[in-house]
C-alpha cells in the first residue's frame, strides 16, 4: 500500500494501528518496535535498528559505508599498489591509529575510540578519571576535558613538590 508513490513506504502498524514506516524485522512501526526492544535504537541514516549500547547514531552497515566512502581514495591507492581490498582496509585502519588525549603519543593496538595510552602513570590516571566521570553521567567531551586537566594539575603539582625527578618516562 503505497500512499504517495515517492515517499517512504507506509503501512498500518498491527500494534498501534498508525500509518507508519514498518520495520521489516518486527513488522511493526519503529516506535512500537523500540517499545518491544528497548535495547535497540534507530539508525539516523537508514532507519535500521541496531544495539543501543553502541555509542553511535548509525548502524554498522551505514558506518561501514561511511568509512568506505571517506577512505575510498586511500583504498584505491593501496589497491593500485597491489593490496587486496581487505588488506587495503586493514592498512588504512592501521594508518588512522588513535593518539593519547593526554600525552599525544600514538596508541599502539588502540581502536579509534581509545582515548588514552596506558604507558604513563598520568595517562592511566586520566583514563580512570575519564571512566569515573562518564559513569557520573558527563558527556565524553566534558569528561575528557576534566580528566586531562586534572591529570595535568597532578603532574605539575608533583613537579613543584620538591620531588623533582630527572625527566622520567623514557618515552623519547
Ligand atoms: Zn506502531
Ligand atoms: Zn543504517
Ligand atoms: Zn598518554
Q: Could you explain how this protein is built, in words?
A:
It is a single chain. With about 170 residues, the protein is mainly alpha-helical. Helices cover about 40% and strands about 5% of the residues. The chain has six helices and four strands, in the order ββαββααααα. The chain has helices at about 30-35, 60-70, 70-80, 85-95, 120-135, 140-160, and strands at about 10, 20, 40, 50. It has a two-stranded antiparallel sheet. It has a two-stranded antiparallel ribbon with strand order 3-4. Helix 3 (about 70-80) crosses helix 4 and helix 5 (about 120-135) runs antiparallel to helix 6 (about 140-160). The chain is flat, with a radius of gyration of 23 Å. About 15% of the residues are buried. Residues about 160-170 have low confidence and may be disordered. The structure holds zinc ion (3 copies).
List keywords for this structure.
42% helix; 6 helices; binds zinc ion; mainly alpha; two-stranded antiparallel ribbon; 7% strand; 172 residues; disordered C terminus
Reconstruct the topology from this structure.
Layout: E1 10-12, E2 19-21, H1 30-36, E3 40-42, E4 49-51, H2 60-70, H3 72-80, H4 85-95, H5 121-135, H6 140-159
Antiparallel strand pairs: 1-2, 3-4
Helix pairs in contact: 3-4, 5-6
The chain binds zinc ion (3 copies).
Amino acid at each position: 500500500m503505497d500512499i504517495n508513490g515517492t515517499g517512504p513506504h507506509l503501512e498500518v502498524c498491527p500494534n498501534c494501528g498508525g500509518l507508519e514506516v514498518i520495520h521489516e524485522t518486527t513488522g511493526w512501526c519503529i516506535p512500537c518496535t523500540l517499545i518491544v526492544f528497548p535495547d535497540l535504537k534507530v539508525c539516523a541514516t537508514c532507519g535500521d535498528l541496531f544495539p543501543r549500547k553502541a555509542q553511535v547514531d548509525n548502524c554498522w552497515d551505514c558506518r561501514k559505508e561511511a568509512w568506505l566512502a571517506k577512505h575510498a581514495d586511500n583504498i584505491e591507492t593501496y589497491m593500485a599498489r597491489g593490496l587486496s581490498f581487505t588488506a587495503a582496509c586493514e592498512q588504512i585502519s592501521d594508518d588512522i591509529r588513535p593518539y593519547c588525549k593526554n600525552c599525544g603519543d600514538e596508541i599502539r593496538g588502540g581502536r579509534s575510540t581509545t582515548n588514552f595510552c596506558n604507558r604513563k602513570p598520568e595517562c592511566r590516571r586520566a583514563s580512570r578519571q575519564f571512566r569515573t566521570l562518564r559513569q557520573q553521567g558527563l558527556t565524553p567531551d566534558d569528561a575528557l576535558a576534566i580528566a586531562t586537566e586534572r591529570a595535568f594539575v597532578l603532574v605539575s603539582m608533583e613537579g613543584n613538590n620538591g620531588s623533582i625527578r630527572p625527566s622520567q618516562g623514557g618515552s623519547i
